[in-house]
TrEMBL record:
The lineage of its organism: Eukaryota, Metazoa, Chordata, Craniata, Vertebrata. It comes from Gouania willdenowi (Blunt-snouted clingfish). Residues 329-553 form the NXPE C-terminal domain. The gene is LOC114464803. This is NXPE family member 3-like. It comes from the Eukaryota. Coiled coil: none annotated. Keywords: Membrane, Transmembrane, Transmembrane helix. It holds the Pfam family NXPE4_C. The keyword GTP-binding does not apply. The chain crosses the membrane at residues 21-38.
Length: 559
């Protein structure tokens, strides 16, 4: 076009020298800039995923945080303040283990009912918990991590409780009574307050205790280097793979002989165990890690039918998301949870696309649906079964279900970097609409990092959800939160229930007031009679799917 303009007889010759001079100057500046850029920065040549690769100065900060606006910074500070854990005892070189919380010396007691003698459906049960140390002396500080629930194993009934920390070694657990019959109280010490002190330190000083690897390849040359969002300063050059769309940071040490744009695979590297011998004592099974607290008297009450003039759960009471009765999850919120068998699942999902994003706990949903629906066939993508992405199609009923893992950090087997996608970017690629269901989770792989990293990841996803709902308001968006799990010493310092509990509070705060729905995996695992597991057992997954489908098809007539 420029050449044709210069040759056109309509252009007066008097303007050619001036235009040509300007053009030559601009071209020269551009050439000089390109040469400078090529000499100083290695440019990522692949378009997917959208990473920038460059060498960073060696004085890079230990953890990198996604840049956020002033408004988001104020919100972040407010969230951090709202989830601030009570002050816990300090761990010094001369601290005495016998002064730490001992669940075997601690006790709980059911507080007597006010007024009428009998406990009835609709009442709120209160339990006082007194924590003692290994000398059986009362603790004077709070911060212990306690889980409480009420169950009836014969009825396959259960409901979670809320624990209130009085900051002096005493706690109160409250529960709504929601079924007739026996209600057995369970109180578990997950971590003593002293262990929380250690976990706080680890997430600040040892945020790289889980590290990751990337494989680089060019021709016959292959190299592997360490990667992380928290990468310690080093004299070795660093490749910057910060996502240009979301701003999510990610870094790898540069290979010695290969360029940054030869990165082909991401994988879990390994684990570092930075506990001292004294700290290690705070994470011992059957001693102070996930140990039941015994009652000083009766540990159960008998619940009778409610009075006709009394509501089931009053507004002033603690109101959990729901409860189990005869193994079925019943909501205490506005949604009515239906029970879906195979035909009703097909009826609900006919003509719909279901996109699932997250970690292996979300992959369970994909596996459940694919197994439950006989005509929903998984399309073989020749991908490792542990990483994905996965896709299943029911051609007859026009049902499509997909699963993709979230972007780094993620502790997976080797996965192609082209398949590492951030949830926010994936949501931006969805058209949406009344026939689209989006469900995601993100929590289990971020348990070793400062909470700011998790908050900012959720803010990024929230922005994408807002964009999705603006262009397609009828899109259904469902979020699965984290759940309690079985803990060992190693699991505790890499994926603690304490951190997951904090993440759940953050998730609720970030998405508060939005047109999204929650599958409360935390309460659904805590209230169930089955043991806690990172990957909940099939009966719990079935109930989670029932909640998901009840959001999808609230008017469906099910069995």
């Amino acid at each position: 076009m420029i050449e044709q303009s210069f040759r056109s007889p309509k252009v007066k010759a008097i303007f050619l020298p001036k235009c040509g001079f300007i053009f030559l100057c601009l071209t020269g500046c551009l050439i000089i800039f390109i040469l400078w850029w090529m000499n100083n920065v290695e440019v990522q040549k692949t378009a997917d995923p959208p990473f920038i690769s460059q060498l960073l100065p060696i004085n890079m900060s230990f953890c990198a945080f996604r840049p956020i606006s002033l408004e988001e910074t104020l919100e972040e500070n407010k969230i951090l303040k709202s989830i601030a854990w009570p002050q816990t005892p300090t761990i010094t070189s001369d601290y005495t283990f016998k002064n730490t919380t001992d669940p075997w010396c601690s006790k709980f007691a059911i507080l007597p009912k006010k007024g009428e003698e009998k406990w009835r459906i609709g009442d709120q049960l209160e339990v006082r918990i007194v924590m003692n140390d290994f000398k059986c002396l009362p603790k004077t500080s709070g911060g212990d991590v306690l889980l409480a629930s009420v169950k009836n194993r014969h009825l396959k009934a259960g409901v979670s409780g809320k624990v209130v920390d009085h900051l002096n070694g005493n706690y109160t657990a409250v529960f709504p009574l929601v079924w007739e019959g026996k209600a057995e109280i369970e109180v578990i010490l997950v971590h003593p307050g002293e262990a929380v002190t250690v976990l706080k330190r680890l997430n600040g000083e040892n945020a790289d205790r889980v590290y990751f690897n990337s494989t680089f390849r060019s021709g016959s040359v292959t190299e592997t280097t360490v990667c992380n969002v928290c990468l310690r300063p080093t004299t070795q050059p660093v490749c910057n793979y910060t996502d240009i769309r979301t701003g999510e940071p990610w870094f790898c040490l540069k290979p010695k002989s290969l360029s940054c744009n030869t990165r082909i695979e991401h994988s879990k590297g390994g684990y570092l165990h930075p506990l001292t011998n004294q700290e290690n004592k705070l994470f011992k099974k059957k001693i102070n890690l996930r140990v039941p607290v015994q009652s000083s008297g009766s540990s159960s009450v008998t619940v009778y039918q409610q009075n006709k003039d009394k509501p089931t759960v009053t507004s002033s009471m603690f109101r959990p998301s729901g409860f189990y009765y005869k193994g079925v999850w019943k909501s205490l919120g506005t949604i009515q949870v239906h029970q879906f068998d195979t035909p009703s699942i097909v009826q609900c999902l006919r003509g719909k696309v279901v996109h699932l994003y997250g970690d292996s706990t979300m992959r369970q949903w994909f596996e459940y649906l694919t197994k439950e629906l006989p005509d929903l066939k998984e399309f073989t993508l020749h991908i490792d079964k542990g990483t994905g992405p996965f896709m299943s199609l029911d051609y007859k009923n026009n049902i499509l279900v997909t699963y993709r893992c979230h972007g780094p950090p993620i502790r997976f087997k080797p996965i192609s970097v082209s398949e590492l996608r951030y949830i926010a970017n994936e949501l931006d690629n969805i058209k949406g609409g009344s026939n689209t269901v989006v469900a995601f989770t993100i929590w289990a792989h971020l348990g070793t990092f400062p909470m700011k990293i998790y908050i900012r990841r959720l803010m990024s996803i929230r922005s994408a959800v807002l964009r999705l709902l603006l262009r397609a308001p009828d899109t259904l968006v469902v979020i699965r939160n984290g759940n309690p799990q079985a803990l060992s010493t190693s699991i505790s310092i890499f994926n603690s229930d304490w951190y997951s509990l904090q993440c759940n509070k953050v998730l609720r705060a970030v998405f508060k007031g939005m047109n999204v729905h929650l599958v409360d995996a935390w309460e659904m695992v805590l209230a169930h009679q089955l043991p806690h597991n990172l990957h909940p057992e099939p009966p719990i997954i079935k109930n989670m799917i029932n909640v998901l489908l009840s959001y999808t098809c609230p008017q469906t007539q099910t069995k």
